[in-house]
Design brief:
Layout (H helix, E strand, L loop, with lengths): L9 H9 L5 E2 H8 L3 H13 L4 E4 L8 E4 L4 H4 L1
Antiparallel strand pairs: 1-3, 2-3
Length: 78
């Protein structure tokens, strides 16, 4: 088992959160990166504009939307 190093930039940390199998919601991203929710949503928009395909899953029942990066070229950009 290899130990993964923590990404250095906030963008790399965000992309790491979004590439997890379960993805991440705005509250989780905001907490991990120390951002306010509107900053997190702006960063998601920035990734979309940069060409990343981000899926939004809305589970319903009052649960928050979950975001994931679908584009596999993330490892190259990191």
């Amino acid at each position: 088992m290899t130990k993964q190093t923590k990404p250095k930039t906030k963008k790399a940390q965000l992309m790491q959160l979004l590439t997890r199998k379960t993805g991440a919601d705005v509250a989780t991203i905001s907490e991990k990166l120390g951002w306010l929710p509107h900053t997190t949503r702006a960063a998601l928009t920035g990734l979309r504009k940069a060409g990343f395909e981000i899926s939004t899953e809305k589970p319903g029942n009052g649960k928050p939307s979950c975001y994931r990066i679908l584009d596999k070229s993330v490892e190259e950009t990191g």
